[in-house]
Write a structure and sequence with these properties.
With 249 residues, the chain is an alpha/beta fold. The chain has a 7-stranded mixed sheet with strand order 4-3-2-5-6-12-11, sandwiched between helices. The protein folds into 2 domains: 180 residues, Vaccinia Virus protein VP39 (Rossmann fold, 3-Layer(aba) Sandwich), CATH 3.40.50; 62 residues. It is globular, with a radius of gyration of 18 Å. The N and C termini lie far apart (46 Å).
């Protein structure tokens, strides 16, 4: 079984840049001179615009492959950031930040109550007074999570520089007792079906439980939007775009 994070080229195919997301996180981080910590930075698609905004960026990820790609992406733009290989569930950088960010569903890599308690406590410890913790996650989809486990759904076809058109199909198996969805992705080219199989296990976080999880780390939800344009969240919203702060005593 391959990891999605073992091949930066394939990862970037299914995680392309998103101007609205970038704008939201850059504006939230605050720009020049602000101390920003990005958790789960991946290949640097947010690290680069954050560094370009003038922020003092530290970015961590557990994957050395992703960090290598982020380092190259920064160098290509003549930018710099402090890149560190760490697990977001247990880190200590001995400094505080004005903004801490976890973009593009990366918070969902935390699966257990203990994972959330450890990660969120570390985040709270690293927040400077008045600092903000920003993240976005899916609203769980009943239709998606109720699919038959062997039912393949097309995710899309992407153009790879060397392989040409690459089609990705997905199956999802959901365990309601753990709230973890297991996604299996099957990658095919025009000449080789299923040349790669990757798995992605993500915790589903329902809107009403989110504030309770934040409390595990001494945080409280300040704002929650239904999109990166900061529209109100409604029952039709696809995302939870959130700003949290240190809980008041």
């Amino acid at each position: 079984m391959n990891s999605l994070y073992d091949d930066a080229d394939l990862y970037d195919l299914v995680a392309p840049g998103n101007a609205d997301m970038e704008r939201f996180y850059v504006e939230t981080a605050g720009g020049t001179g602000r101390r920003v910590l990005e958790l789960g930075c991946g290949s640097g698609r947010f690290t680069v615009p954050l560094a370009a905004s003038g922020a003092d960026v530290t970015a961590i990820d557990i994957s050395p492959t992703m960090l290598d790609r982020a380092r190259q992406a920064l160098a290509d733009k003549g930018l710099s950031a402090n890149l560190v290989e760490l697990d977001m569930r247990d880190f200590d950088l001995d400094q505080q930040f004005d903004a801490i960010l976890i973009a593009a569903n990366s918070l969902l890599h935390l699966h257990s109550r203990n994972d959330f308690a450890c990660a969120l406590t570390a985040i709270r410890r690293h927040l400077a007074p008045g600092g903000v913790f920003a993240f976005d996650i899916f609203v769980p989809s009943a239709a998606m999570l109720s699919r038959a486990p062997d039912q393949r759904q097309p995710m899309g076809t992407f153009t790879h520089a060397r392989l040409g058109p690459v089609t990705v199909e997905e199956t999802i198996a959901y365990d309601p007792t753990t709230q973890i969805s297991r996604a299996d992705w099957y990658w095919s080219t025009e000449t080789q079906k299923d040349f790669r199989h990757t798995r992605l296990d993500l915790r589903q976080i329902y809107p009403q439980e989110l504030p309770l999880l934040l409390e595990l780390g001494g945080l409280q939800l300040r704002d929650r939007f239904g999109g990166f344009d900061r529209i109100p969240m409604t029952r039709q919203s696809f995302r939870q775009v959130c700003l949290a702060v240190a809980a008041t005593e």
